[in-house]
Amino acid sequence: MKTEPDIVDSGDAEESGTGEGSRTSLWTVEPAIRPRMPDPVRSAAVRAWIITAFTLVLAMVAVLCTFAGSWFAFPAVLGSVASTVVATWSVLDVWVTRQVWNQRHGVVSEPSSTARALRRERRRARREARRAERSRPSSGQHLSRA
């Protein structure tokens, strides 16, 4: 019979002075790859997953009741159709909530290189137009002060 070794937390071993602090713990915290979703977006996503799971279960019940010839097949099909509409709405709610969060909390967006080039050309054209207007003498104005 094989027994598992005792797990020793490295913090406890160092405090007790037994010298067994060299063991590594089984739990290691790794940094997240993506940042955490904002709370409203996460709650909308959890709600959407729950509704979608309920819809899939209801659809499976409807299929099985149809195969069995049960009286519950027709109400289950109607319920699954309605639940599909609600699930679609909940997924759209996640998308809208995410867009609203991004707009309200100023997510940094970087324009593409083509947009940057177009802006640069427009700025250059405006500068040249201002220079041309300054260098052209105006006929009705006098520059001397009396």
> Structural class, from secondary structure content?
mainly alpha
Return the string of H and E elements. HHHH
End-to-end CA span: 112 Å
Query: Rg to the nearest angstrom?
Result: 34 Å
Discrete helix count: 4
Low-pLDDT runs of 5+ residues are none
Count of β-strands? 0
Portion of residues in helices? Answer: 55-70%
Mean pLDDT across all residues, rounded? 82
Q: Please give the largest β-sheet.
A: none
Strand content: under 5%
Describe this structure in words.
This protein is mainly α and 146 residues long. The protein is built from four helices and no strands. Helix 2 (39-68) packs antiparallel against helix 3 (73-104). The longest helix has 32 residues, at 73-104. The chain is elongated, with a radius of gyration of 34 Å. The mean pLDDT is 82.
Quickly describe the structure.
The chain is built from four helices and no strands. With 146 residues, it is mainly α.
Write the layout of secondary structure elements.
Layout: H1 10-16, H2 39-68, H3 73-104, H4 113-135
Helix pairs in contact: 2-3
Task: Kindly list the characteristics that best describe this protein.
146 residues, mainly alpha
